[in-house]
Automatic annotation (TrEMBL):
<keyword id="KW-0285">Flavoprotein</keyword>
<dbReference type="InterPro" id="IPR051820">
    <property type="entry name" value="FAD-binding_MO"/>
</dbReference>
<keyword id="KW-0274">FAD</keyword>
<dbReference type="GO" id="GO:0050661">
    <property type="term" value="F:NADP binding"/>
</dbReference>
<dbReference type="InterPro" id="IPR036188">
    <property type="entry name" value="FAD/NAD-bd_sf"/>
</dbReference>
<dbReference type="Pfam" id="PF13450">
    <property type="entry name" value="NAD_binding_8"/>
</dbReference>
<keyword id="KW-0503">Monooxygenase</keyword>
<protein>
    <submittedName>
        <fullName>NAD(P)/FAD-dependent oxidoreductase</fullName>
    </submittedName>
</protein>
<keyword id="KW-0560">Oxidoreductase</keyword>
<keyword id="KW-0521">NADP</keyword>
<dbReference type="GO" id="GO:0004499">
    <property type="term" value="F:N,N-dimethylaniline monooxygenase activity"/>
</dbReference>
<dbReference type="Pfam" id="PF00743">
    <property type="entry name" value="FMO-like"/>
</dbReference>
<dbReference type="GO" id="GO:0050660">
    <property type="term" value="F:flavin adenine dinucleotide binding"/>
</dbReference>
<dbReference type="InterPro" id="IPR020946">
    <property type="entry name" value="Flavin_mOase-like"/>
</dbReference>
<comment type="similarity">
    <text>Belongs to the FAD-binding monooxygenase family.</text>
</comment>
């Protein structure tokens, strides 16, 4: 058990969400003698899954893929509600003795690497007292994700201050919000909007999804009949690897088909929407995007719940542009007015690299936007630092597991060869660069320039392809010309 007085560790893990829990599991299992702590600014584990509480919040990937590779997903729901996912994460923490390593209420502000000592100094602020604590470690793993936990993104709407109702953002859903019988307008067309609308429609007077432009929306069964049958026949431990392989293959197959035959996949997706909505519904206006499938994430609705709500008349879709807010609702540029008691701004996330932590090496700040990503998990010129950003076209956790495995292999290699530091270093400092996330989604385009870049080839290249990363991260060599290992004895060790 980690002593609460201890501030020096082999590895510091930042974030107690899925990515941080995965790192803790791999450290405990594969490096049992290593000391580590998890720092998190919140008061409970779970990250996204304990922060977001909007109606209907659920996974947007199938859970046998989204769950950890080392812990079978046994719930009947394949598209699972947040509270079920949170139970799964808490079970993982309890079963593996991870809880004793977590320091809650520790908001990490900065991390500086001392090259002479081969040591990070990480500064964290106690969110209750404001006191600062300095932690030290040889290695830092960032599991902070890629968005701002403090606030979501809301555009500036003309006249919003004149609105007499209530405006809420899904990222900070008020516990006292009663929308029973109310007129609700949900602004947005992404994954959050298509989740909120049918769930609010169950008790609201009416819910309108107001979008500037449509997204691809497709329906999947909330339960996976094959997975549930296999779990009964052979048990979760034996069934889980089979189910994961099946789901990964299906997801990758759909994505590859969309890349190779975008027009055909588009036609199939829109045809499915038409099949689920009343005859004559204006699908071309409301559910036919101007972009190709997977240029932005597909929006998944379990059991077609959004289409059911629209067909029942409890929800509707309006495709238009906001002109201004009024006291009683929203005036649209078409001249139409939407009456509303509550407006939900499902307008996206605010991206933020590494949780806003200031990184520095030997006292010099690192401009993360000027760094290049090595194997999608380390930063050029930054020693002993690993970060986890999952896939955007398949389950996030698949990438996280591979990154954690590779980090363990790097740490083992350093121990075996007496290395104290490892630094990704491009042979060509003028390496051609591109965005870390190559998607046209508004939330990505607004802030992706502030993130590290990717190269175009070798270990600096990035493809959102699980099968490629299995080869590179699970089976590929730890050493290559792009990694510089140091065997110098740290100054503090004498």
């Amino acid at each position: 058990m980690t002593s609460t007085a201890t501030t020096d560790f082999d590895v510091l893990v930042i974030g107690a969400g899925i990515s941080g829990i995965a790192a803790a599991y791999h450290l405990k299992k594969h490096r049992p003698s290593a000391t580590f702590a998890i720092l998190d600014g919140r008061t409970e584990i779970g990250g996204t899954w304990s922060l977001f509480n909007y109606p209907g919040i659920r996974s947007d990937s199938d859970m046998p893929s989204f769950g950890f590779g080392f812990k079978p997903w046994t719930d009947k729901k394949s598209i699972a509600d947040a509270h079920i996912i949170l139970d799964y994460l808490n079970e993982t923490v309890d079963e593996n003795g991870i809880g004793a390593h977590v320091r809650f209420g520790q908001k990490v502000l900065a991390a500086d690497f001392d090259s002479a000592a081969a040591r990070w100094t990480v500064t964290a602020r106690d969110v209750e007292t404001g006191d600062l604590t300095e932690y030290t470690a040889n290695f830092v793993y960032s599991g902070t994700g890629y968005y701002n936990y403090e606030a979501g993104y809301t555009p500036e709407f003309d006249g919003i201050e004149s609105f007499g109702g209530r405006v809420v953002h899904p990222q900070h859903w008020p516990a006292d919000l009663d929308y029973t019988g109310k007129r609700v307008v949900v602004i947005g067309s992404g994954a959050t909007a298509v989740t909120v609308v049918p769930n609010m429609a169950k008790t609201a007077g009416h819910v309108t999804m107001l979008q500037r432009s449509p997204s691809y929306v497709f329906s999947l069964p909330a339960e996976d009949a094959i997975a549930n049958t296999l779990n009964k026949l052979v048990g979760p431990d034996r069934a889980y690897p089979i189910i994961r392989r099946k789901n990964i293959a299906l997801n990758r197959g759909v994505f590859k088909a969309a890349m190779r035959f975008p027009a055909a996949v588009r036609k199939l997706l829109i045809a499915d929407v038409k099949r689920r909505l009343p005859k004559g519904y204006d699908v071309d206006t409301h559910f036919s995007p101007a972009y190709n499938p997977w240029e932005q994430r597909l929006c998944m609705v379990p059991n077609g719940d959004l289409f059911t709500a629209i067909s029942a008349g409890t929800a509707s879709v309006v495709t238009d542009h906001i002109d201004h807010f009024t006291e009683t609702g929203i005036a649209l540029k078409s001249g139409r007015h939407l009456d509303a008691d509550i407006v939900v701004t499902a307008t996206g996330l605010d991206l933020l690299p590494f949780g806003g932590i200031t990184l520095s090496v030997d006292g010099t700040d690192v401009d993360v936007a000027d760094t290049v990503v090595y194997k999608a998990m380390m930063l050029s010129g930054v020693p002993n630092f690993v970060f986890a950003i999952g896939y955007t076209n398949i389950a996030w956790t698949l990438k996280v597991d591979l990154i954690c495995e590779h980090m363990i292999r790097i740490l083992d290699h350093m121990d075996q060869h007496g290395h104290h530091t490892v630094t990704p270093t491009p042979a060509d400092p003028i390496i051609e660069r591109g965005p870390l996330l190559d998607m046209s989604s508004g939330y990505v385009q607004r802030k992706i320039a502030t993130f590290p870049k990717v190269g175009t080839s070798g270990p600096w290249g990035l493809t959102m392809a699980y099968e490629d990363d299995v080869v590179r991260l699970r089976h590929g060599a730890v050493t290559d010309d792009a990694l510089v290992f140091s065997a110098d004895v740290p100054a503090l060790a004498g």
